[in-house]
Write a structure and sequence with these properties.
Helix content of chain A: 10-25%
Structural class of chain B: alpha+beta
Structural class of chain A: alpha+beta
Shape of chain A: elongated
Number of strands of chain B: 6
Order of helices and strands of chain B: EHHHEEEEE
Oligomer: heterodimer
Distance between the termini of chain B: 19 Å
Order of helices and strands of chain A: EEHHHHEEEE
Largest interface: A-B, 39 and 42 residues
């Protein structure tokens, strides 16, 4: 079944706030094998000028998954996860994510288009502090294999 | 540190194991079973469980973080996932990562082209990182 293109432009609240802890950032960095001390040691981070431990570069995409369950699980959109592969990812950041941040996210369906027999679904998650400061923008393109609508003759 | 176009960044190689996929799944909260269940991978037509796309992006980012130092930040980071990376039940799969400075955009801001390879195959395409070298000032 094809994705529901009537939902392009829809926007979804991300739900609960995410409290970014030092321990979560260390756990995430360690899962990448990222051993640069700035991602683990507070004194190194502060000596480099950071207010607290910074997140490794792709942590924003973790948050986009946490905040993006609205569209990702919207039965009206019709995602069949057995057909989904991750096509593209882009993270544009205004500032680093730091331990101590309390963040929220809002996800919108930016685009659904046909590419051969597949459909490309582009979601955009804007991540902000609870005070409304935009921290970063995460664009995820999902490929829905074989769900392109039939072309009418 | 040379910021001239064409300057290579030090290359890295990674031995990715099933254990790392499980660890990454937990840390990233991405529990899609094609990254840890043989049955789910087989049902999706894959020869083995595969590396999370976002893990491959996180690994290639280490080329930048190792080179750019603790005060740097990637301000714009994009990739296209070109080839899935199967991970065997025993042992590891080896990936090679490298980067090259494409151009200097402004003072202290460079665009870097990254590659991540499985043998001769590109795992990522159009992998670009814009890096601000001194994002914070002590």
């Amino acid at each position: 079944m094809s994705l529901n293109r009537a939902l392009v432009g829809s926007s979804y609240d991300g739900g609960s706030e995410f409290d970014v802890s030092r321990q979560k950032l260390r756990e995430f960095a360690a899962s990448l094998g990222e051993q640069s001390p700035v991602f683990h040691e507070l004194d190194v981070a502060r000596a480099a000028g950071h207010p607290d431990l910074p997140a490794a570069p792709t942590f924003a995409a973790v948050l986009s998954l946490v905040f993006g369950s609205g569209p990702r699980r919207d039965p009206e959109l019709g995602i069949d996860y057995s057909r989904i592969v991750h096509g593209e990812q882009r993270i544009v950041s205004r500032r680093a994510i730091y331990a101590g941040d309390v963040l929220v996210g809002r996800t919108s369906i930016e685009e659904i288009r046909t590419a051969g027999r597949n459909e490309l679904l582009r979601l955009r998650c804007i991540i902000l502090t609870v005070d409304g400061e935009e921290v970063c923008r995460v664009d995820s393109t999902l490929v829905s294999r074989g769900t392109a609508p039939e072309q009418s003759a | 540190m040379s910021l001239a176009t064409g300057t290579p960044l030090p290359a890295l190689s990674f031995e990715v194991t099933r254990a790392q996929l499980v660890r990454y799944a937990g840390a990233s909260l991405d529990f899609n079973p094609i990254h840890w269940s043989d049955a789910a991978a087989a049902a999706a037509g894959l020869p083995d469980v595969i590396v999370h796309g976002m893990l491959s992006m996180g690994l290639v980012a280490r080329v930048v973080t190792a080179w750019a130092g603790p005060a740097a930040r990637i301000v714009d980071f994009r990739v296209r996932f070109a080839t899935p990376v199967p991970v065997p039940a025993v042992g590891f799969v080896r990936l090679h990562a490298a980067g090259t400075i494409l151009r200097q955009l402004e003072d202290g801001v460079v665009e870097i082209e990254l590659v991540l390879r499985l043998g001769e195959t590109d795992v990522l395409k159009n992998a670009l990182a814009v890096v601000r070298l001194a994002d914070v000032h002590s």
